[in-house]
């Protein structure tokens, strides 16, 4: 009796009508790109489907709802960052480079952190992010901090960078419609010269003495405060 050859397995086509077919990862990456360009307020299943050139029903084949879509985008976001090397012997320079690189990653996807918090989606459990956090704690421990302080230094590093991106970089990178970009760039800021005859001598002195700077200079100052604060910990000053 002749054996019949096994039927060839059917593979989903990679393109249809000139467009790549959707996958769950492709939908998540499209959402991440959408968030970077248009912001969280405009992200809906319908608006993303329009960007992809498909029907909303097609998107629902890969994600359950908007929260699942945000969780998928957050997962991809968390998985993509590869931090620079951390050498305890050169810890100050390495920490500065780490902060610069982390800032650049978050600036590529503005609003991702606040959106994840608002949607009750955590990025901290993704294996790549967990490995990055574990490595940073280990770095601070190798520098000489006790493990509890190494953990706190790790968390403070992340908070300092992400907070700067969300509250300082974001309005400059994508000014909201109600803000005048010239006001953002003005040094000193206008609020340092308040009206009303208030007795605010240090604000007025700052207004007179501040020199023009930019976000890169402000971020460098933020990182330097972080670096010197860690260097001042008793475990390191005693060495």
From TrEMBL:
Entry's Gene Ontology BP terms: negative regulation of DNA-templated transcription
Keyword Transcription attached: yes
Span of domain HTH tetR-type: 21-81
SUPFAM superfamilies (alphabetical): Homeodomain-like, Tetracyclin repressor-like, C-terminal domain
PROSITE patterns, alphabetized: HTH_TETR_2
MF terms (GO), sorted A to Z: DNA-binding transcription factor activity; transcription cis-regulatory region binding
InterPro entries reported for this sequence: Homeodomain-like_sf, HTH-type_TetR-like_transc_reg, HTH_TetR, Repressor_TetR_C, Tet_transcr_reg_TetR-rel_C_sf
Residues forming coiled coils: none
Compositional bias annotation for Basic residues: 9-19
Region (Disordered): 1-21
PANTHER family linked: HTH-TYPE TRANSCRIPTIONAL REGULATOR RUTR (PTHR30055), TRANSCRIPTIONAL REGULATORY PROTEIN (PTHR30055:SF151)
Name recorded for this polypeptide: AcrR family transcriptional regulator
Organism of this sequence: Actinomadura namibiensis
Lineage: Bacteria, Bacillati, Actinomycetota, Actinomycetes, Streptosporangiales
